[in-house]
Amino acid sequence: MTIRSLPAANIAVRPGLRSEVSPHVLDRWNSSIRAAAKEDEENTISIMEPIGADWMGDGVTAKRISGALRAIGKKDVTVSINSPGGDYFEGLAIYNLLREHPANVTVKIVGIAASAASVIAMAADEVQIARAGFLMIHNTWVFAMGDRNELRNVADWLEPFDLAAVDIYAARTGIDPKELGKMLDRETWIGGADAVAKGFADTLLSADEIDSKAKNSIEGKVVVASHKIETFLARAGVSKSERRELLAAMKGGMSSAASTGMSGAAVLSGVEDLLSSIKAISSNA
């Protein structure tokens, strides 16, 4: 199914707000099936991280995808996805880039395509999903501060983005927009076979596309714990620059310093200890 007749999604970013990955979605992503990458497959783009640059500069950005598409040229492209989502605005930009690619685009959901990553998946001419893979759709999720009037304004400002997501899902699936709106309201996880049945995906992946025996990586656990810490710090009103310094210091150096050589397990232990301390402070506040 193709949805290239849809107009590009236009967005206007409000200062001080950005879409975020909810912590429990990060947990589910980290415990998801890990993809067995095919090194010899040409013209493949891998989206295996949160969407948008995080405090360390990691993550999948529209700039990165644009560069990859330029390198591929006017050829068919395969996009492998295992991502918890992230910055919704960055996700829409990637969606538009893939939708406007002049050749065929195939998306393979090898683990999870959640939140903004699920929107990206909808840009494909063909969507394939692992039998044990998942799509997750929900309303836009942000940090916001202010009085009741400001928070009402934020809710009103977010509504068009949720409606844009509904339009994108409806164009592919044919599901009634009102029903899709209810699915976003309650945060809906859609398994592989169900995704095909509902029209979110076209076919299941063949069994050899995924490695069901692969274990979670230390790196993935560090990403999850680090994002949780940043969530707590942001909610506490800590500025972005202060958050970067605190998290970099925990790893043994300033954010601009070279790698300290700490093992992944040591970094993870430090991250989890700090997270436990923050939770204890939060519960006693």
Describe what you observe in this structure.
- The protein is an alpha/beta fold and 285 residues long.
- The protein is built from 10 helices and 9 strands.
- Strand 2, helix 2 and strand 3 form a beta-alpha-beta unit.
- Helix 1 runs antiparallel to helix 8.
- The radius of gyration is 19 Å and the shape is globular.
Q: Low-confidence segments, ≥5 residues, pLDDT <50?
A: 1-19, 31-40, 211-218, 254-261
Termini distance? Answer: 52 Å
- Radius of gyration equals 19 Å
Which series of helices and strands comes N to C?
HEEHEHEHEEHHEHEEHHH
Task: Give the SSE layout.
Elements (H helix, E strand, L loop, with lengths): L22 H8 L3 E2 L8 E4 L14 H11 L4 E7 L4 H12 L5 E10 L1 H6 L4 E4 L4 E4 L10 H26 L3 H9 L2 E4 H7 L4 E2 L5 E2 L6 H18 L4 H11 L13 H21 L1
Parallel strand pairs: 2-3, 3-4, 4-5, 4-6, 5-8
Antiparallel strand pairs: 1-9, 6-7
Helix pairs in contact: 1-8, 2-3, 5-6, 8-10
